[in-house]
Amino acid sequence: MSTAVQTERKVFYPDSDGQPMADNTIQFECIVTIKGNLELLFADHPDVFVAGDLLWYPVEGNAEIRQAPDVMVAFGRPKGHRRSYKQWEEGNIPPQVVFEVWSPGNRVSQMLDKLAFYDRYGVEEYYLYYPESGEWDGWTRQEGRLTPISQMEGWRSPRLGIRFEKGKDAEVGLFYPDGRKFLSFLELGQLAEAERQRAERLAAKLREMGIDPNQI
Predict the structure, then answer these.
(1) What is the pTM of this model?
(2) Based on the domain organization, do 87 and 188 belong to the same domain?
(3) Contact present, 29 and 171 (Cβ < 8 Å)
(4) CA 122 → CA 116, 117, 150, distances in Å?
(5) Mean pLDDT for the stretch of residues 192-215
(6) Are residues 131 and 206 in the same domain?
(7) How many distinct structural domains can be found in the chain?
(8) Are 125 and 95 in contact (CB under 8 A)?
(9) Residue 216 is part of which domain span?
(10) Looking at the structure, do residues 170 and 191 belong to the same domain, yes or no?
């Protein structure tokens, strides 16, 4: 029997840390907006995995070493549902980019512990959003360590290609590489409905002109 199988049977890796995903509606909305838009950004990339509030275990055999980023992105890993992210089952690839959203329930010491965790276990880019001020903090890996980004206004993520600006509450101030801003689920739905109505009006106008829109 392999060592990996023996270790897996001896160690229980919980699927939840017992902590809530968010402490309030703004924090929840921010997390959902970031995660959902990143999924849209990489929808056509089968080897980019995006997750929210998923436990990440970087060390096989130790279930106490874990973290659940609000949002994480792992390049080189297939899409699909997981109960947790066990790094040794993922080609030993850590999430390269993680996001956290500050809430009133957070403590400075807790966030410093998260920064140290992400630094130690190989995260390349770490971003922290403060909904009350709309400000971002960020770190990128330089010479083997996560180093603070001096200016977040206008910063472009090396991995994601997205741009950072000052946000406002749940409007997180993130922009796609082509300049479109990250939208909430509601805004995306409203945009899709507006496009549907526009298409229907155009089809009706074509029919008035004796043109079958299905033949165009």
Answers:
(1) 0.84
(2) no
(3) no
(4) 10, 9, 21
(5) 73
(6) no
(7) 2
(8) no
(9) 184-216
(10) no
